[in-house]
Amino acid sequence: MFVCNKWDTVTEPDKVYTHIVQRLSKIWPQFDEQKLIRFSAYCAMRDTKIDEDYINTEYKHILEVLHSVYSEAINERIKVTYK
Question: Would you state the pLDDT for residue 25?
Fold first, then answer.
């Protein structure tokens, strides 16, 4: 999982996104673009201050991806332990 924060301040989001994907693909050969998340902590915090029970879609997506990464790690640990 790779989180690009402060996305609310980016003036050219498509250009920046393409650049990030290209750079990460060079550095990280098995980079999965689906694990790249555009996020604004400022907007998530602002939304939470308005309604404490509200989770915006970007924040919800981060939580879902984080949950899946954690679940995969736990499953791998169990597989290794019981081989």
Answer: 92
Q: DSSP string spanning 18-68? A: HHHHHHHHHHSTT--GGGEEE--HHHHHHHHHH-TT---HHHHHHHHHHHH
Q: What's the one-letter identity of residue 42? A: Y
- pLDDT-derived band at 62 (thresholds 50, 70, 90) equals confident
Quote the domain boundaries for residue 12: 2-81
The predicted model scores a pTM of: 0.67
- Angle 11-60-29 (CA atoms, 0-180°, nearest 5)? 65
> What is the C-alpha to C-alpha distance for residues 21 and 67, in angstroms, rounded to an integer?
23
Count the domains in the chain: 1
Other CB atoms within 10 Å distance of the CB of residue 19: 11
pLDDT digits (tens, 9 = 90+) for 20-30: 999 999 998 88
Which among 75, 10, 7 has a CA at the least distance from the CA of 37? 7
